[in-house]
Amino acid sequence: MSEVSLVVNGRKVSGAVEDRTLLVHFLRENLGLTGTHVGCDTSQCGACVVHVDGKAMKSCTMLAVQASGSTITTIEGLANGADLHPVQAAFKEHHGLQCGFCTPGMIMTATDMIRRHPEGLDEIAVRAELEGNICRCTGYHNIVKAILAASKTMSKASKSKAKKAA
Amino acid sequence: MYSVNYHRATSVADAAKKIKAGDAKFLSGGMTLIPAMKTRLAAPSDLVDLSHIADLKGIKVSGKNVTIGAATTHFDVANDEKLKKVCPALSHLAGHIGDPAVRHRGTIGGSVANNDPAADYPSALLALGATIVTNKRQIAADKFFKGLFETTLKDDEIVTAVTFTAPAKSGYAKFPNPASRYAMTGVFVTKGKDGVRAAVTGAGDDGVFRSKEIEAALTKKFEPAALDGVSVPSKNLMGDIHATPEYRANLVVVMAKRAVAAANA
Questions:
Q1: InterPro entries recorded for this chain (chain B) (predicted)?
Q2: CA distance A22 to chain B (A)
Q3: Taking the CB of the first residue and of the last residue of chain B, which one, N or C, has fewer CB atoms within 10 A?
Q4: Cβ–Cβ gap B100/A18 under 8 Å
């Protein structure tokens, strides 16, 4: 057993877990954050993607003790109160989902991708970046549309913020 | 996953001490080891986590000399501006391992120590004539990779860095398996002051290897056309449900052509 301490969605949390406990199970079972899903359990599908210290990672392929000391954002931590995050809003607007199982991982991957590409994204880049996220319903079309739309919204927002600051 | 005891190492010396517990294994990014433990293909009693040792992280480029710390992630290798300038082929290779989430965690030291026969890095290190630095010695890539998942590393030996001199030209091309995206065949070619080297991953029955045929043809002329009509023997190549040894032999030539084209671009 080890003591795991994390900051999850801005809240300090800790708990004693078996060393073999995966981060995704700690999030779901100890913290009740069931938005992060276990899809394939073999590191391929990306339903379990969360941000660890600001970077997208597969929480099913990481022990909770490995993450101890890190800052984690899950799908539950994206929205600002009742206001959806721009990526969540874009998935809703463009219907970037059908059954919704892969959606939390898709959205966490998308926000990470947009952060790393402030210059903007095109369809080829988005599809390449989605390499590690599998959707068995949509055929990806509306997911790609939603991410492209969110990328535009977010770059506009950051530009107008920069203007205001100047 | 079977029960395991986790130890976080604070330094290389600390890791070397902690590895002596039971049937312990080193853990870096864990992109191979954790899945192997989940399926119970690996069941170490203890894990010694190397990924929090600051000394093992980072890329140094001085002229043409490159040193990459063992715990440097694929993402950092892919995006290091100095490395991109002196050896863009290695950045390209790192940027095409797995997927973005895997690249954020997986490390060059872990990949090299694991020596998966379909991993990308072993072909690069072999073609670059790189040196693998451990806490005990320096090992030439030519002597380091031994076979499937086998290296000359001792159980308690820790890869701390890889070093190489960037060649004038280098290129990498792989044919990814459509499902796993591991290299079904990947070829890394270099042209430096010691001549041409071409290393093949994903195809060899015994892991990564240098192709005499490709090197001979490219020594005459470092152009894709130099490989027209060249054939690589299918003996000692892998055959599985994805591809026969003959198919892989053909892929070696095709990927080598693409790698040379990339190196000359």
A1: CO_DH_flav_C, CO_DH_flav_C_dom_sf, Diverse_Substr_Oxidored, FAD-bd_PCMH, FAD-bd_PCMH-like_sf, FAD-bd_PCMH_sub1, FAD-bd_PCMH_sub2, Mopterin_DH_FAD-bd
A2: 9
A3: C
A4: no
Partner B, chain A 116-145, Cβ-Cβ below 8 Å = 129, 131-133
Nearest to B89 by CA among B187, B206, B203, B204: B187
Measured between beta carbons, the chain A residues lying within 8 angstroms of B5 are: 19
Domains plus CATH for chain B? Answer: 5-49 (3.30.43.10), 57-165 (3.30.465.10), 169-264 (3.30.390.50)
Instruction: Check pLDDT > 70 for residue A166.
Output: no
Please answer yes or no on whether A63 and B3 come within 8 Å at the CB atom.
no
What is the tens place of the pLDDT at every residue in B123-175?
999 999 999 999 999 999 999 999 999 999 999 999 999 999 999 999 999 99
Report d(CA B93, CA A18) in Å as an integer. 36
Percent of chain B with pLDDT over 90: 96
Query: Per 3-state DSSP, what percentage of chain B is helix, strand, and coil (rounded to 5)?
Result: 35, 25, 40
**pLDDT on residue A108:** 98
Q: What residues in A contact B181, CB-CB < 8 Å?
A: 131
Look up the CATH number of the domain holding residue A52: 3.10.20.30
The verdict on A51 and A96 lying in the same domain is no
Q: How far apart are the first and last CA of chain B?
A: 47
Q: How far is CA B258 from CA A94, A136, B54, B255, in A?
A: 38, 33, 37, 5
The whole-angstrom separation of Cα B67 and Cα B92 is: 17
Has residue A58 been placed in a domain? yes
Task: Write out pLDDT tens, residues A11-42.
Answer: 999 999 999 999 999 999 999 999 999 999 88
pLDDT digits (tens, 9 = 90+) for A52-109: 999 999 999 999 999 999 999 999 999 999 999 999 999 999 999 999 999 999 999 9
Query: What is the total count of domains within chain A?
Result: 2
